[in-house]
Structures are given as C-alpha cells and as structure tokens.
Amino acid sequence: EKLDGTVYGDGVNIAARLQGLAEPGGITVSASVRSAVKGKINAEFDDQGEQQVKNIADPVRAYAMRADGVASATAGSPSTTDSEKTLPLPDRPSIAVLAFTNMSGDAEQDYFTDGITEDIITELSRFPSLFVIARNSSFTYKGIAVDINQVGRELGVRYIVEGSIRRAGNRIRVTAQLIDSVSGSHIWAERYDREVQDIFAVQEEVTECIVAAIAPQIDVAEALRARRRPSSLSAYELAMRASGLLFEGYRTSDRGLSTQGLELARTAVAIDPQSAAAWLAVAFGQFQNVALRIVEDRQRAWQEGLEAADRALEITDSGTGHAVKACLISHAPFGGRWDEARAEAETAYRLNPQDTLVIGIYAMTLTHTGDALQAIKVLERSLRISPRNPLVYDTYFELAQAHAMIKQYAAGVDWALRARIAAPRSVLPHLLLAVLHVGLGNLDKARAALNDARQLAPELVQKRLSTSSANTATEYRRRYDTFLRVAAGLDGPKAADAFRSN
C-alpha cells in the first residue's frame, strides 16, 4: 500500500477480475472472502466454479452472492422458482450424463471430450430400462460448476454421470463417476489411462468401458433401494426386487429365493401388465424352475416362461428380453434348441453389445454351438470393458465352461475358482470344478469339489447325478455327465479315458 492509499497485490488483482464477472449490480467474491463472511451476513453464495483470470497463475474459485434469498442471474441455472425447477422422477432408473470437463488446457480437445459424452449418452440409450436425458438438455450445464442435487431436481433424474478428460502428449486420462443425485452418494468411480494412437479408437474403447460399468451398477443400486423400501412398492420396484432375489437364487442355487422372486414378479405383473421389467422377471424365474429343477412340471414352467419373455418383447424390444428368451430356448424340453437360442442371443447382442448379461448369454450360446473360442474372445472383451462388474460371476463361470468344452481343463479350473470366489454359495462352480479335475486326472480334487457342492445343495447334486444335463451340447453333455459320475464314484476312472483320448 502506498502513502496515497493505493493498494497493490494479487488480492487487488483478483478483486478487479471478479468484478468483471459479476452481473450488473451484483457481487462476486473469491473463496477466501466467502469463507470469511459466511454466517456473518444475511446472504448465500452460488458456486460459479474455478475461473481463469488475467495475471493470476492459478484459477480462482468464484461465488455469486445471493442476498435475502434472491438468486444471482449468473449462478449457472435458469432463474426459476423451486417448484418450476423440480421435475418428478420417472418410474424407471433415470440418468443424465453431464458434459465431461476438458482439463487439457487445449480448447481443441473439446471435440474429443464432447464426443465421449455424446457416445455415452447414445450407448446408455440402448438400455430400454433406463430413462436417459437427451444431450441438448444435459449439455446446458457445460462449463458450469453444478450442485448434483439441483441438477437431479431440474432434469428429473436420480443418477448423474460426470467426468473429466486430460491429455498430455500421447497419453490421455479419463475419469468418470456415477452419483445418486437424491442422496448425494457416490455409487461408482473409475479412471482410464490410455496411449493415444487412434483417437477415435480410444474414444470408442473408453465409452464401452464406462457404459458397461454404469449399467450394472444402476441395476444393483435399484435392487438395493427397492429392498429397503418397506411398503407401497410400484410394479417396477417390485420387479427390481424380484430380479435381485432371482439372480441371488440362481447364483446360490437357493430355491427359496428363486421361488420368492418369481412370486414378487407375478405380483408386479398383476399391478401393471404393461411392465416389461415385470414380465422379464417372470420369464427369468420360470427359466430357473427349469434349469435348477425347482418344480416337477418343468414343461409348464418352460412354456409360461417363454410366453412371459414374448410378452416383455411385445412391450419393449430389448437386448435383455432376447437374451432371457435365448436362455429358455436353450432349455427347450429339454435337450435344447441351440441354433435357435444362438440366433436369439445374436439379436440381443446386436441391440446392446455393452450389456454384460447379454454378453454372457451370447457367449453361452456360442460355446454350445461349437464356437467356444469365439465365446472366450467375447467374454474376455466383457472383462476388459467392465473389470469391476458386480455381476462378474457369470463371466467367470462361462469362461470356465467354454474352456471345459474345448478340453482346456487347466484354464477352466482357473476360471471356475474365480467364479467360486465371486459367488461362494453357488453350487455350479463346484460341480464344474469336479468335472474339470476329472479331465485333468485329479480324482482327489474332483471328489473334494463334489463334496463341497453337496454341502451347499445336496438335493440338487443328487438330481444332477441321477439325470442327464439339460443345458449343454450333445458331446459335452455326455462328457460332463461321465466325469461327474466318476467324481462321485458311480463310474470307474476308466470311464473318463475315452473322452480324454478323443
């Protein structure tokens, strides 16, 4: 400060620059000023994000003051009342993908940043179960520091995806996170580091990874949310709760959970016969009745499941619907029509190649129609694009089965062990481990795996030993059945030799 009262320094420079950001008659302050006056004056502040100002090296976080509850017109969102801003949540999972932030310091990288955001929106729109906000709405928040809860209210969505992209030389880093706008909780976050050789190939790969991670995370979050709701569930919420029980029942071979899930799905259909999610849950429940031999009249269960899948597809043509129908066709009473199942699964995969459930079922049909190597390739891609998929058990198990079908028993054991870790209460990996160890000639390990299976589901194991496999191709079915009987001591070790020599 000079003797004449003139003041110099960064503080003065910042104040002068912030003055230029303020609306006419308004006040904009820095973070330090906001912190100093907070609680001392009758005003609130709207975060305007970090601003790059002249002659100051680091960005300055700016806040527009709201006095007496009147919002600043430059606070980022349109100046509307709270009642006008708030939109009701749809009756299905709703999501907005905000424009990713270009942190490269190079405006020319905006095309890449916007391109990834647009691709994520497009790919998420492939999921009929999701309500996805269009680009022209979500991009209105571009370049603005936002309050996630406020964005959720203004767009009428529960879930928000936001992220950033930074490029330095030949490397690029993309970060993304999924947030519940109602609770503010972070559901998922990931970082992707890539070498840039073909920028569009990187854009496609990162988009695939993000979408493949987000979709199952939303499914899990919705199922948990429905489970916590005490009463007055909508048809959709009942369907989500039913699906959660059915998936858990299938992984653990828990007939009680599967039966409970099917009952909830039927209740959802009774409430809303136009709910595709409810009909799909019924179809999947009946598939379990057939595959896990839960009911005696498997023929009727199969027929009702197929009709439910067709009803769901009439309401909404979706990859998931075709995938569930493929499962049922593969168990057509009861040897399976695998060529038809594969055609149905190919339709599912074409509609939504990012859905990990669809990928798993498509790979299963590839395996059982003699294309196990292609199935392995598809499943490995699934792991690449969604390494933290909460439903990864299915991918591990199908990889184990694909390797078993082409007699790569050691690799099959590795994947089956991963499946057992991912779903320790599932009986299926233990049964497959017994088969794989017989293939390797490790009879002691085969018997131990079968005993583990008996501990988990003794009735299912007994049925499995007394009847032929219902869901595999002919040659593999005979080999699987023989190896399992050898593990159980029902056939001698020599019974497996013929299969090993072919």
Describe this protein's structure.
With 502 residues, the protein is α/β, with parallel strands linked by helices. Helix content is 57%, strand content 12%. It has 22 helices and nine strands. The strands form two sheets. Strands 4, 5, 6, 7, 8 and 9 form a six-stranded mixed sheet that branches. The chain has a three-stranded antiparallel sheet with strand order 1-3-2. A hairpin with an 8-residue loop joins strand 2 (43-51) and strand 3. The radius of gyration is 28 Å and the shape is elongated.
Q: Can you tag this structure with a few keywords?
A:
six-stranded mixed beta sheet; three-stranded antiparallel beta sheet; 9 strands; elongated; 502 residues
Q: In short, what is this structure?
A:
The chain has 502 residues and is of the alpha/beta class. It is built from 22 helices and nine strands.
Write the layout of secondary structure elements.
Blueprint: H1 10-21, E1 28-30, H2 31-37, E2 43-51, E3 60-67, H3 82-85, E4 94-97, E5 101-102, H4 110-124, E6 131-132, H5 135-138, H6 148-155, E7 159-168, E8 171-180, E9 186-195, H7 199-228, H8 235-252, H9 255-271, H10 276-291, H11 298-315, H12 319-330, H13 338-351, H14 356-368, H15 372-385, H16 392-405, H17 409-422, H18 428-440, H19 443-456, H20 458-466, H21 474-488, H22 497-501
